């Protein structure tokens, strides 16, 4: 590339960004184009966009979504594109050390130091902090009479740290500055400042191009969050971690996310009636081509039953694994609300699909014409899964909890003031040295510690999101058996702030079924239709015998013919704390558990 520049040619760098596709897809959802968008899209002065950035609500926003960057945005409070360009340039190793000075000068807490009056017009936009390579070049031009070409050579020499060349450049700079009556000592100090910043200074034109995309994605999220999140999920359709984060963000913004459905969902994410429609292609184990085939078949008419579905799809594309994943994800719910039965029916459906495909290949018609109901094999009967079982299967198919969370409803009266939720960590952790948190262990990874032994990282999930905490070696030895993946725990979490980032470490844990977190007046247990009561009675007996002071009433909400429900109060007093609610939720046939209002 040096040869091109020596020949007087201009070098261009072209960088492909998937974020541009997110922007394009969001505009498509909106039915807009870049030219038809409002004036603020092009003038970079939309206040809602800067409010979003200043609040740090930038998950999914290009270059601004990391937690450290979000903390920086809250401090800087950007109000213009110049601020955004500067933040992108400063938030890098080296320049990051100057962010406190940048913020203090911006808000008038300290006075800017421009090093010399001639440099004020150059450094004023960044509050006296040299940020860009272009600023270093202009400083050399303005203070020491460099030509533009000489200034560029100075920038390169500083960046490459060529000692011999730097000696010559320092001499040239001081002599040039002397011609403008700048004392040698001051000129040498300014040269030192320039040398420091030129070593890691960012190219402003590069940062401005990035900032333009940051603004556009921020604008879309601030003004059209449904379309923006759907487009973002579409581009990360195979990245479960990103999908889970976007789903939690949609929940935070109170945007409905409609669960996958074989008659409603597309292969990709879609937007409809103010909601995000979850993509069939995002289900694990199905394949995008298979889901496109399913949607193409559905265009003829909606699927009317599981048999109808099996008879019409191609078994080479919609295979056993695919059907099992669809059943676990709840995509068959409108045709068969009992997911346990839908999953158990896969053998029958595979045989039905293969037979129908053979008939199509042989161009054979049924003896019964279009009415195939008389020849269809019956589907097996199964008792509905408990809410816990249903969510476990859903997690396997989707990669995170979509329709609910195993801990939903378990943060009962008495615990709400004690337990910190994942979504609240950033807002409360800085004011507390210790947190109490409840979660399911999703992952545990152990690593050798420098002091000997091992430490671990835990990923825990609660109804509002996931969080990671480190387990020190001495604590790990005590609690290893209690933090296996799948365990539900209440953890004491120490908070440390390092490099302005929140670090969490586990100080101790208690299994949820042994935790005392307070209790409500009672519990209402919602049941599936036609369940067997024996397992529930067995659980109720255990709750009578459970040694606890957290006792109250248990009522059953039982479906009746005609679509209503009947309430049945169980005699006596039962354990009604968090452990009791968890045991009831895990019982077969239980749809859900909630508090009895005081």
Q: What do these coordinates show?
A:
- It is built from 25 helices and 13 strands.
- The chain is α+β, with helices and mostly antiparallel strands.
- It folds into four domains: 16-205, no CATH class; 256-398, no CATH class; 422-514, Nucleic acid-binding proteins (OB fold (Dihydrolipoamide Acetyltransferase, E2P)); 522-595, no CATH class.
- The longest helix has 20 residues, at 204-223.
- It is globular and about 95 Å long.
- The N and C termini lie far apart (74 Å).
- Spatial strand sequence of the major β-sheet: 6-5-4-7-8
Distance between the first and last residues' Cα:
74 Å
Low-confidence stretches: none
Helix coverage percent of residues? Answer: 40-55%
The number of distinct helices, counting runs of at least 4 residues, comes to 25
- Would you count the extended β strands for me? 13
General shape:
globular
Number of domains: 4
Task: Report the radius of gyration as a whole number of Å.
Answer: 31 Å
Mean pLDDT across every amino acid position: 89
Structural class: alpha+beta
Largest sheet report: 5 strands, antiparallel
Assess the beta-strand content as a share of residues: 5-15%
């Amino acid at each position: 590339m040096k040869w091109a520049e020596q020949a007087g040619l201009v070098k261009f760098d072209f960088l492909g960004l998937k974020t541009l596709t997110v922007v394009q897809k969001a505009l498509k959802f909106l039915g807009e184009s870049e030219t038809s968008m409002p004036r603020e899209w092009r003038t970079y002065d939309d206040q809602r966009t800067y409010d979003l950035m200043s609040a740090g609500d930038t998950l999914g926003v290009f270059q601004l979504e990391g937690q450290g960057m979000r903390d920086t945005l809250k401090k800087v409070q950007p109000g213009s594109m110049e601020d955004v360009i500067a933040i992108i340039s400063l938030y890098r190793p080296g320049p990051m050390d100057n962010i406190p000075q940048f913020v203090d000068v911006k808000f008038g807490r300290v006075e800017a130091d421009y090093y010399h009056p001639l440099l004020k017009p150059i450094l004023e936009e960044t509050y006296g902090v040299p940020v860009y390579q272009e600023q270093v070049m202009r400083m050399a031009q303005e203070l020491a009479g460099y030509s533009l070409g000489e200034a560029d050579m100075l920038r390169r020499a500083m960046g490459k740290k060529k000692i011999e060349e730097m000696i010559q450049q320092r001499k040239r700079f001081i002599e040039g500055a002397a011609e403008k009556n700048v004392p040698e000592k001051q000129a040498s100090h300014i040269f030192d400042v320039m040398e420091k910043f030129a070593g890691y200074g960012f190219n402003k034109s590069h940062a401005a191009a990035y900032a333009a995309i940051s603004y556009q994605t921020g604008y879309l999220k601030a003004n059209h969050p449904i379309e923006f999140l759907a487009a973002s999920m579409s581009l990360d359709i195979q990245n479960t971690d990103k999908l889970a984060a976007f789903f939690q963000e949609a929940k935070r913004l109170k945007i409905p996310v409609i669960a996958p459905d074989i008659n409603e969902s597309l292969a990709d994410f879609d937007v409809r009636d103010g909601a995000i429609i979850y993509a069939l292609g995002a289900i694990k184990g199905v394949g995008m081509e298979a889901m496109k085939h399913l949607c193409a078949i559905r265009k003829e008419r909606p699927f009317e039953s599981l048999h109808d579905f099996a008879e019409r799809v191609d078994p080479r594309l919609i295979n056993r694994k695919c059907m099992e994943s669809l059943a676990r994800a709840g995509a068959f719910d409108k045709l068969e609300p009992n997911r346990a039965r839908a999953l158990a029916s896969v053998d029958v459906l595979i045989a039905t699909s293969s037979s129908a495909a053979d008939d199509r290949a042989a161009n054979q018609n049924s003896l019964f014409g279009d009415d195939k109901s008389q020849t269809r094999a019956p589907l097996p009967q199964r008792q509905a899964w408990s809410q816990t079982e249903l969510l476990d299967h859903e997690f396997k198919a989707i990669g995170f909890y979509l329709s609910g969370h195993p801990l939903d409803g378990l943060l009962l009266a008495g615990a709400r003031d004690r337990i910190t939720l994942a979504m609240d960590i950033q807002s409360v952790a800085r004011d507390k040295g210790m947190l109490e948190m409840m979660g399911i262990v999703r992952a545990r990874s152990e690593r050798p510690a420098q002091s000997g032994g091992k430490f671990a990282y835990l990923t825990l999930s609660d109804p509002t999101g996931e969080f990671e905490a480190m387990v020190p070696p001495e604590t790990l030895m005590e609690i290893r058996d209690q933090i296996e993946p799948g365990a539900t725990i209440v953890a004491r979490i120490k908070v440390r702030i390092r490099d302005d980032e929140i670090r969490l470490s586990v100080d101790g844990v208690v299994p949820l079924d042994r935790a005392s977190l307070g209790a409500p007046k009672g519990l209402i247990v919602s049941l599936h239709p036609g369940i067997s009561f024996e397992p529930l009675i067995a659980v109720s007996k255990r709750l009578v015998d459970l040694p606890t002071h957290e006792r109250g009433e248990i009522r059953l909400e039982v479906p009746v013919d005609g679509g209503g429900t009947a309430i049945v109060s169980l005699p006596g007093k039962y354990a009604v704390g968090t452990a009791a609610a968890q045991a009831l939720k895990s019982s077969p046939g239980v749809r859900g558990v909630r508090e009895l209002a005081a």
